[in-house]
Amino acid sequence: MVQIAWNGIVRGRTAAVLGTLVLGGSLAGCSGSDKPAKSASPGPPGATPSTSSPPAAHPFNGGKTGLKNPVLAVKIENTRSAMPQSGVSAADIVYIEQVEGGETRLMAVYSSKLPRRVGPVRSARISDLHILPQFGKPAFAFSGVQGAMKKYIRRSPVYDISQDNGGSSYVRWGPKPIPYNLYADPKDLLKQAPKATGPRDIGFRFGPAPEGGRPVKSFTARWPATRMGFTWSAKEKRWLTSYNGSPHVGREGGRLGGRTIVIQYAKTGRSQFRDVLGAYTPLIKTTGTGRALVLRDGKAYDAKWSRPSEDKGTTFTTTDGKPMTFAPGQVWVALVNDGKPYIP
């Protein structure tokens, strides 16, 4: 199981948060040396193998299909250079995570169905390893990681089907230059992870909208260098996405977007890792409790989120403590810093 310890630090005028990752052992801070960690177990307690009895409804989207399908998570570039992206519209859940430079990257989670192609596939970040344990031991597709993070990938409860291991599942395709032209075949990827965990309860609840809420036409989630907008379409009964003010369109055609949008406010600080330019990689704290805003059916609901540990799911409740139900269909989770935008 992955744990996070948080310590306040100050650099110049900016107060930042330093997250240190512990995987079966402990990891020293940025200025210290790493301590060895024990290997992770095959999966966290309560993981549901793909061969077990399926749930009554899919726990990721509330639907009735793909109830025994394995879980695949894919990191996808989310900058203008990578657009239009492939395969995002087929995901059950789409996470938006801050990365270096104030940009964002997507992590698309698939189970109920698979697209023909997904990408551009990009590298993993440390926050992924804190989000994924709630899915059991899923297959995880990405284009690589910085060297210092490789041992944590090996110890985490995921099947590593990165570009290094995926072979012919990955191809360079289209007119974009490297690194914006790497795509993968999800079916081929899953052939290399035959024991990947099937869908399990990750805390989401689907059903009729709760009482209350306030009508809204749009909402904009903000990071230092990126804005993701969500505009309600009564005709399509979903929220249509935009990227930095422009329509966010999938390569398959049509606007991207979900039936439910979760703005999850989570403390975002500085990890011990840096990119090739020396910028610190953000670390998003997705355990504990916090506030959220849930968009569904043309309304906004103030909510609270709770995740007691990394092998448990994230539950959402209304401010009066009742379950915050989602509209059946694709869910987007925008992980936004709780406070001012985090600039490392």
Can you describe this structure?
- It is a single chain.
- The chain has 344 residues and is mainly β.
- The protein has two domains: 50-191, YerB-like fold, CATH 3.50.90.10; 214-337, YerB-like fold.
- It is 6% helix and 36% strand.
- The protein contains four helices and 22 strands.
- The protein has helices at 126-131, 150-155, 163-166, 186-191, and strands at 2-11, 14-23, 72-77, 93-98, 104-110, 139-141, 159-160, 170-172, 182-184, 214-215, 218-223, 226-233, 238-243, 246-247, 257-258, 260-266, 268-274, 280-284, 288-296, 299-307, 315-318, 331-337.
- The strands form five sheets. Strands 3, 4, 5, 6, 7, 10, 16, 19, 20, 21 and 22 form an eleven-stranded mixed beta sheet that branches. Strands 11, 12, 13, 14 and 15 form a five-stranded antiparallel beta sheet that branches. A two-stranded antiparallel sheet has the order 1-2.
- The chain is globular.
